[in-house]
C-alpha cells in the first residue's frame, strides 16, 4: 500500500492571512489536529497544528503563566518569537514553516519512517508539486485495521517451499536462524536453535508468522546454559 491508498482527501486547508480564531474553528469543526497552509498560488507554505495554538494569551496559557527562570535563561530572539506565537493574530504568526512532504507513491513503511524521524503527526501528499492529500498517524492505524489474516494467507505452499519462504523472510536479520533450524510439516513451522534473548525469540516468531501460508509456529528455541565458574 502507498500514500495514494490511505491519504485523506480533499484536504482541509487555511491561508497565511486567516485569523487565528478562524483557524482554530476549522480544526475544531473538522475534528482534525492540523492542516496545511496554502498561499494564493496554491503552494504549501506552512502547517498549523493544535500544538501551535497550545499557548495563547486568550486562554491564559501564554508565557506569563510559566516559570520566570525559563524566561531568564532564554535569549531575546527566543522570547520575541514566543511572544509572536502567543499574541499573533494571523496564521502566518504561529504556523510551522518547515514543511515535510511526500508523494503519492510513498510506501507505508517510508511514511511511518518519515513521521517518526521528523517527530510529526501528519504529512501532506503532493502530485507534481500540488497538494492532493494528507496522511496522518490515524491513517496508518486505519490501514492496519483493514488488514485481515485472510490477506496474509493468500497463496498455497508445500512444506518445502514454505520452509524456503520462511528462511528468506528471516534473511538479513542478525538474529535470523540458519535454514537447518527451520522445519515445516503441514504448514506448521517448527523452530529449533539457541537464542540470546527472549526478544530475539519473539522477533523470529513474528517474522515467521507473517509469511503467507504459515498455519502456526511452534518455537523450540532455547537460551544458552551458562555454567558459573568455580
From TrEMBL:
<feature type="domain" description="CBS">
    <location>
        <begin position="7"/>
        <end position="63"/>
    </location>
</feature>
<feature type="domain" description="BON">
    <location>
        <begin position="158"/>
        <end position="225"/>
    </location>
</feature>
<protein>
    <submittedName>
        <fullName>CBS domain-containing protein</fullName>
    </submittedName>
</protein>
<feature type="domain" description="CBS">
    <location>
        <begin position="95"/>
        <end position="151"/>
    </location>
</feature>
<dbReference type="Pfam" id="PF00571">
    <property type="entry name" value="CBS"/>
</dbReference>
<dbReference type="InterPro" id="IPR046342">
    <property type="entry name" value="CBS_dom_sf"/>
</dbReference>
<dbReference type="InterPro" id="IPR000644">
    <property type="entry name" value="CBS_dom"/>
</dbReference>
<keyword id="KW-0129">CBS domain</keyword>
<dbReference type="InterPro" id="IPR007055">
    <property type="entry name" value="BON_dom"/>
</dbReference>
<dbReference type="Pfam" id="PF04972">
    <property type="entry name" value="BON"/>
</dbReference>
<dbReference type="InterPro" id="IPR051257">
    <property type="entry name" value="Diverse_CBS-Domain"/>
</dbReference>
<dbReference type="InterPro" id="IPR017080">
    <property type="entry name" value="UCP036990_CBS_BON"/>
</dbReference>
